[in-house]
């Protein structure tokens, strides 16, 4: 796989790419919808990655091609954003130019990825981060790792228009093999926590659609709740700063729906801290319980789950998992399962069988482990 983007580049343009880079997708162990509310997250970079190979173009427009459909597209100049994955290429280009990076005006970009798209594993962040690395190298500019996170986030948030937090880009840059990354707050400190075990990913088969929808709604609800709470607590910087005891009283004046959103953010913030402590002491059973509670909160208070994922979580628990939860933004995508290593294959088999009996298709499944962040490829 690792040479696929470079191969595709050579085949398409009969030239060598000037540089290649890759970056991982991520599975979030716990800490959902906390990042854009000032709270902590605990993701890991996964083995599945996006690869890009880039070079100058001597044509009149930039050209992009993906191994997924093998179709070469010319990116028109001017203000129009292309549709689909090519929007991320333009987003990264614009975010880099905004930072003063002098990119060649016409580029060639070949993309290959083993991160399933639309599964909540941050295929878009992986692509953006790989592009940032390759483009900055092409322009001979040194970006710090924090700078790479920033550009990749801006590309997606400001230019493509997805209200994403910074978790996905951060772990795609800073991820480390056999470690989960505790990110204390969006721009706060980080801690690498040893996590040398496999996790199981189960695809609910329901693609989640980020740019258009529900995630942006939840951002608006969290924003509205924060503004309302500030009437009584003008110092409140973010929802995650609310104390978790006494929450019922603090949110009593909010509309019921907003109070539930706040409850998810605040209890999830507490769960991430407890999860990090449990992980640091290898208390996996407790870590699993926190994941399972997190799923219930995502489902009931944040209303961001789906029946397929709910069923998978319960089947996984019954099959001997320590914990399972829908990972990523929600409304579909992948369930992450934590289980004793010896039980992972059984859990996979049992859940897949039940899923097929109930929903009529075999779900895609992957075993993966914590992997390394962005890198240049030779
Ligand atoms: C998406 C965003 C992340 C985070 C999650 C929800 O993946 O990109 O920043 O907000 O949703 O936890």
Bound molecules: alpha-D-galactopyranose
Category by helix and strand content: alpha+beta
Number of beta-strand segments: 12
* Gyration radius, rounded: 21 Å
Task: List low-pLDDT spans.
Answer: none
Form type: globular
The overall pLDDT average reads 95
Number of helices: 11
Which strand-content bin applies to the residues? 15-25%
Helix amount: 40-55%
Tell me the strand order in the biggest sheet: 4-3-5-2-1-12
Question: What's the layout of helices and strands?
Answer:
Layout: H1 4-13, E1 19-30, E2 42-56, E3 62-66, E4 72-75, H2 86-98, E5 107-113, H3 123-138, H4 145-160, H5 167-174, E6 179-183, E7 190-194, E8 198-203, H6 214-230, H7 247-250, H8 256-280, H9 284-300, H10 307-318, E9 323-326, E10 334-338, H11 344-359, E11 365-369, E12 375-377
Parallel strand pairs: 3-5
Antiparallel strand pairs: 1-2, 1-12, 2-5, 3-4, 6-7, 8-10, 8-11, 9-10
Helix pairs in contact: 2-3, 2-4, 3-4, 3-5, 4-5, 6-8, 8-9, 10-11
Bound molecules: alpha-D-galactopyranose.
The site of alpha-D-galactopyranose has 10 residues, from α5.
